[in-house]
Amino acid sequence: MRYLAMAAFFFCLTGCAEKIPPTTLAATEPSPPAASRPTLGVAALQDMRSTDERAGKRPGLLVLGVWNARRGDYVTGDGDLGGRVPGEVTEAVARAMSGGRFGHAQVVGGVAETDAPALRRACGEHDLTWIATGSLRHLYGTLHQNAYLLLIPAIYVNAVGWDNEKTDPLGVAHIAIDVHDCATASPVFHREFAVENRYPGVALSEAARFAFEDLLQQLRNETAAHPILRAAPVTPGMADKPEAPGSR
C-alpha cells in the first residue's frame, strides 16, 4: 500500500499535468496555383489577443501533504502553435482567399495604417485591385482540469484516493476581415469569422488548429460566393470624405 501511495503521489506531481505537444499553423491551407499577378493584397492582421492567449496558461500544483490538487484552466500559447502565430494566420488567410471572387491573393507588407491614403498607396505599390485588412481576435485551445490526490498514511490504516477530470479540448478562433476597393479605398467586404468547438480526443494545440481550419473554410465559402460590388470612382482626395446622407 505504501508503494502504491508513493506511485500515486509522483503521478500527481508529473502525470496529472496536461501534455501540450506543439503544432504549427503553416500547413493548414494549401497554396492554389499562382495567377499571372496578384489582384488581392492581404496586409498583416493586427494581433488583438490577450496576454494569456499569447503566453499561454497552466494551472499550478497545490501541495498540502495529505491533499494535493491541480485545478484550473490550460490555455495554449504562441509557443504551442509554432511561435509565429500572427504571421502564419495572415499567410493562411491569404491562401484561403486566393482563387475566390477577389482573384489571386498574396501577403503585402508595409501597410502600417488602414486609412484611405495608406491603402491606396499600398495598392499602387503592388499594382492591386483589392486590399484586405483585418485583425486576429482569438486563437487558442483550452480545457479545465480538476485533479487531486488524497493520502492518509497511518500505522493501521492507509487511504489513497485520486481523480483526474478534464473537459474535452475547446478550440477557439476569431478573425475580422475587411476588403477595400483600391480605386476608392472604400470597403466592399466586411466579415467576422468565429469558431468555438470542442474536439474530443485531440491534443489541446490540435484543438486550436482544428478551430482555425474550420474558420478558414468559412472564409473560403464567403469569399467564393461574395458578389463584388465595385464602388464608383471618385476624384482624388474625395474618398476620405464622408458621404452625404441619402447619397446612396
**Can you count the helices?**
5
Major sheet: 9 strands, mixed
Please state the CA-atom Rg, rounded to the nearest Å: 25 Å
| Terminal Cα span | 81 Å
Number of strands: 9
Quickly name the level 1 CATH class of the domain at 23-59 and 76-142 and 167-225: Alpha Beta
Q: List SSEs in N-to-C order.
A: HEEHEEHEHEEEEH
Helical percentage: 25-40%
CATH superfamily of the domain at 23-59 and 76-142 and 167-225: ABC-type transport auxiliary lipoprotein component
* Approximate shape: elongated
Strand content: 25-35%
**Low-confidence spans: pLDDT under 50, at least 5 residues?**
1-9, 230-248
CATH architecture of the domain at 23-59 and 76-142 and 167-225: 3-Layer(aba) Sandwich
Short description:
The chain is of the alpha/beta class. The chain is built from five helices and nine strands, in the order αββαββαβαββββα.
